[in-house]
Amino acid sequence: KGIRPRGPPGLPFIGNIHQIRKHPWITFMEWSKIYGPIFHLNIAGQDAIVLGSHKVAADLLDRRSAIYSDRPRNIVTRILTGDLVFAFTQITPIWRRMRRASHDALGPKVSKTYHVLQEREVVWLADQMIKAPTLFRSHIQRTSASLVMSIIYGTPIADSEDPIILEIQHFVDRALGAAAPGAFIVEYFTWMQYLPRWMSGWRRYAEYWYEKDSALLTGLFSGVQARVDAGDNGPSVAAKLIKVQDQDSLSVLDSAWLSATLYAAGAETSAGQMEWFMVSMILNPGVQKAAHTEMDNIIGRGRMPTLNDYDQLPYIRAIVKEVLRWRPVLPLGACLPHRLSQDDWYDGYFLPKDTTVIPNIWGLNHDTTVYGSDADTFRPERHLDEAQKLKPAPKDTKEESHCSFGFGKRVCVGRHVANRTLFIEVATILWSFNICAAQDESGNFVMPSSEPATEGTSLILRPRVFGCELIPRFSEVPTIIAHTMDVQNSDATM
Ligand code: HEM
């Protein structure tokens, strides 16, 4: 039907699997230089293409999103989640309803109703950082988990070791783990799905956990139902799902899984980006200094920043864009590639139905033809013009200046919330602290690595474990944080 894109030669049966183990996004950048911005991989007999330029990614995933927005069919995940995690599902009627409900609950206008929750959480974060600075990573974790829990279920979390959080985290690890390439051999040898149940340990595992997780998630959702019935009017996604009753309403089970999907997609991603923010600040004191100057000029030292300051703080917004560009926590869209749902032709190439389509988000974000020869450098100024206002974003980056929120019909539904969360966390930490490298016993500074960690099972790309010193920028910082907390608490009880 036409020629296929070129790609690296592979081995019989397994294709290219053995060549793409460690940091595949870097290998893919190299292969893009050899084979062009669209190249072919053989994943154990399954066709895949990798997209290595903004234009190709936008041409296919955004401009032809009608046929490039399915997900690969994953046998184990489907059973494990009852096909109710819409981030993993095909474009089905249930995906459409869940996606619409999420957009209605997290879109640009509605997400303003969560500002009060975001502001409360970050002041709490600053307070924890003042009181126990060495535990900053666990404070960042708690804040992300708590914020997403507040937005979704209306229930903040005081401790990152909270039993509910641990239980949900196990659910998230199971779901993401099952979707990870190579997790279950049946995904490659699909005839195994027809083996009897007693020969299929993976099936018994998936069915068992689907029942258990459905009970856990329905319990969480029903807790919100009980509060709404008792007259609680607090803003939350779950409360919105309960209150909106129309022909598109989701069942309790669907709503329970939808809420949990949003938690799974939102908590670790935001926390991972915040860890990269901390690393970028330690490595770039000049950037910190410029941010502190913006803070002093616009906010001053008498109050903490709020989300109302968003438009007045272009340098902070440029830092957020640069963190997302420089170290995207989902460098390949992680376990969420797209799938082509019908035969297609592009630039003289034939692309068969069912091809897995992998955008190299990391590669696009580091493309020197778009970001210049210093694309690997953390430099927020690249997003600003001479008047220190934000520049228009490069073409095909959907006003974000990076591709870290994905593409087309699958573009991250939580991006408005995520952008504001990162903004207020970054602004609050920079208003409060000088962030410095930690010192070892001999007083030498220990710089964090800008290389991503590879250890651990998380699919989120995080920095290696690192320390830092958080020094309040001026003596009134602790008092102003405490005072802001008091005001927020009294507003909440009014
Ligand atoms: C900095 C934080 C975040 C990053 C970097 C991020 C990134 C992404 C990426 C790359 C995708 C895949 C897009 C694609 O397939 O093309 C995605 C999907 C998704 N994100 Fe986010 N995300 C973040 C935060 C959030 C938050 C806070 C939520 C919700 C509260 C959320 C909910 C989702 C959902 C539900 C999907 C699946 C959409 C679908 O398949 O239709 N994300 N995100």
TrEMBL record:
UniProt GO MF annotations: heme binding; iron ion binding; monooxygenase activity; oxidoreductase activity, acting on paired donors, with incorporation or reduction of molecular oxygen
Keyword Cell cycle: no
Superkingdom assignment: Eukaryota
Keyword terms of this UniProt record: Heme, Iron, Metal-binding, Monooxygenase, Oxidoreductase, Signal
Cofactor(s) in the UniProt record: heme
Keyword Ribonucleoprotein: no
Pathway: Secondary metabolite biosynthesis
Binding, heme: 412
Annotated family: Belongs to the cytochrome P450 family.
Name of the featured protein: Cytochrome P450
